[in-house]
Amino acid sequence: MKLHRLAVSGFGPYAVREEVDFDLLGADGLFLLHGDTGAGKTTLLDAVAFALFGKVPGARGDVKRLRCDYADRDTPTYVELELTVRGRRFRIKRSPEYERPKKRGDGATRQQAQVSLTWVSGWTGEGHSRIDDVAREVEGLLGMTAEQFFQVVLLPQGEFARFLRAETAEREKLLEKLFGTERFLDVEKWFRERRAERRREVEQLGRARHDLALRVAEVALEEPPAGGGDQEWLSSLLKRLDEDERDAEQVSAEASDRRALAERDWQEARARQERVRRVRDARRHLDRYAEVEPSLRAWVAERDAARQAAVVVPAQERAVKLARELDAAVAQERAAASAVSALGYEGVDLRGDGERFREEAGGLTGLAAEAERQRADQRRIAQLDRDVATTSQGLATLVAQLDEVPHRLSAARSAVEESAEAAARLPQVAGLAGAAAELPRVERAFREADEARRDAVDAQQAAREKLLRIRRDRLDGMAVELAGQLRAGHGCPVCGSAEHPSPARPVPDAVTALDEDRAADEDQRALDRRQRAERESHRLGERLALLREQLGDRPPAELDREHRSVAARAEQLESRQAALAELEAEVRRALDRRGALERELAEAGAQRAQLVEAVEERGARLEEARGEFPDVVTRRAHLGDLADAVTGLAARRAAVAEHEERLADQRLEVARLASLAGFADVADALAAARPASAVAELETRIREVENTRTAAESTLAELPDTDPDTEVDVAGAEERFRVASDGATEAATALTNARTRAARAADLAGQLRDAWLRLEPVEAEFAELDALTDVINGSGQNTKSMTLRTYVLAARLEEVAVAAGARLERMSQGRYRFVHSVEAGPRGTRGGLGLDVMDDYSGQQRPAKTLSGGESFLASLSLALGLADVVAAGAVLDTLFIDEGFGTLDAETLELVMTTLDELRAGGRVVGLVSHVEELRQRIPTRLRVRKAREGSSLELTA
């Protein structure tokens, strides 16, 4: 990957468009991003990362606020990067999602994230404009994810310093993110889930085996075996059940034979008893026939007479019905005559007069409809008079209300304008009020921070003087320290001689290397505290100056009063706008209502005039037609009623004559039918008549007596040898059959139970054998899987207590340690190199991810935490470069960035580091340094200057 050009606009601290030409800067293979703290050095690295991956590294990426706060509202926010990867040169332009002011009116609108990838050379395909497509293309070309890029290309020294001092768990997270070992974690999880699944299967099969053994024992009516039983127990149980079944079959056959013999004896006793009963009943029935024979002859005579009179009764009933109908017709004729007299009729031609009255009433039908219309029009005129009065009153009230509208509208509009002006001023006033409230707190914090800064400077200067004094004292006593390392027969590290005639003698209170390391650590900690205090004091000083510039000479109390007043008016904006809108709507409704009322008055007046004219014209015709009646409708109703009454009377008189004739004919028919039936007159026939139910009852009584006599005679003829006095013991035979039947039933039940138990036990035994066969291989497979899962997850036979994922990370960390150790050994002039450790940590901490430093001066291996500040920087840089070599294996990295950390190095160490960085330029690689160290600025001349946004500070890019 080789960078060519970077452009930023409205991004981070850069308010306007700025460009960086990496081809110019990297012509010599090494360039420097130099500037004061906060000048925007790291922002350029963030811009490169954002252009490629759409996010920035570290905690800055969590904020997701990339637009410059000081950019003009029309300045867009974007990053444009042109680079070459694997021979393909392309340009990426990416904009983040941010809020920008609206082009019209107040407020803000959301600008959506956008990206475009355009090929410049080396590739003829189409570009991309979708975020997902660009992400896939970039990761495919670079061969690494965003996290790997942040670690490999943007070498963050602070993070690797923390990596050196990190515990195993934290170091494991970083390595896992870099090397992408999530798949091994998935393998561990798969084995654990597979083991749990197989364990559940084994437990399920074990429960099934145990349940089957319990069921077999339950069927065999035995106690369940311990441990689920075995083949010997099962075979003995089935053999016993077969023997029980054979014994039950023999007992059941013997009981069945006894029941059959007892049943035959019982059936024969029942048959003899039935024959005796039938003979006794036949003799009793013949005795009763002799007693009722006289009554039987009377029942026959009564039945025959009733059958002959049956034809006379319906005819007589018809005559009675006709007589009742005649009486009803006579009553109706009398009522109709009374109604006609009540209406004043005195004529004799009923039908002719009825037709004449009906024709006269029909002639008045049209005038009756006009009379109804006349009354409706008169009611409508009265209603119109009331409506006109009501509408006139409402119109007068509405006109009075509209006279007050202009003043109310003017007052409401003035109130809305006042609130709108207050709402527009509110952000500015609120900002000033907030600044006034914050000013005392910032002043107090600045005083405290400045005091802390002075204390930190004094403490750091004291720690530095102590370190320099200890180093001077150690150099003065270095002969003693070297003499302590001399061994007989070994060469002197200074002169090389194997003889040591007069080594220096130890002196009291001599300074050792451990004292120097402690002093260096104290100096580093004091320097860190000083830098933190200076940064905090500088930040608060800038904030204090900004607040004072904003407030000017206005007192805080005045700003607070103004803020409350403006806020109160601004809060009323929506309610006042709603009130104005409601008032305007109310005015529109009132105007519409006034127009409607005026139209209603005009329409009602015109309609009333038309109705009055029509009523007067129609009234003359109706007065002439009503005669002596109150109105035409009443006269027409009287004529209709009279026509109906006269016609009805004529119909009633004709009906009476017809009923009299039919009644006389029916009475003659009744007398004829009685004579034909053999009766002297109608009265005798009616006396002999009986209801159908009575005749049926006589028939049944006669038939029962005859059938009983016939059946008795037939029974005696059928059983001539049966003595009715014979006694048969049926109860005893039945009791003997019941006892035998119960015994046979019990034996059959016992046989059925024995067969069921044997069959059920045989079936369950087959299932139990199958369960044994299924469980055996599953248990063996689970035991193997269980042991393997323990090994993969760092337990069981795993003597190193390392999980699979940790093992893979340990192997990659070992590669990193080898690559980084070579660089550290060179930069430390052969004193230090990294050592990878697989030993488990304290308190059961998993091993495999230990990283210590071998000190060749002392020959001892020690933790990286014991390195001094400068040594930690060298170790961090070496580790970062080593990790870049390992992670980027197979990827082409033509550009590297190294961020900060050079301020902790002395001149000699800095020279070693620069030599190492010069070596990185081999093969056309470009190395960018990010630092505020002045010595680096003097080493690399200025080529390009980029001005930051608001503070006016600048960022120098040198090469």
UniProtKB/TrEMBL annotation:
The record describes its quaternary structure and partners as:
Heterodimer of SbcC and SbcD.
**Which one of the record's GO molecular function terms can you name?**
exonuclease activity
The record's section on Gene3D superfamilies has:
P-loop containing nucleotide triphosphate hydrolases
Q: Segment Disordered: which positions?
A: 515-536
Note whether Nuclease occurs among the keywords.
yes
Keywords recorded for this protein, A-Z: Coiled coil, Exonuclease, Hydrolase, Nuclease
The organism's taxonomic lineage, starting at the top: Bacteria, Bacillati, Actinomycetota, Actinomycetes, Pseudonocardiales
**Coiled coil stretches, renumbered:** 656-715
Q: What is this protein called?
A: Nuclease SbcCD subunit C
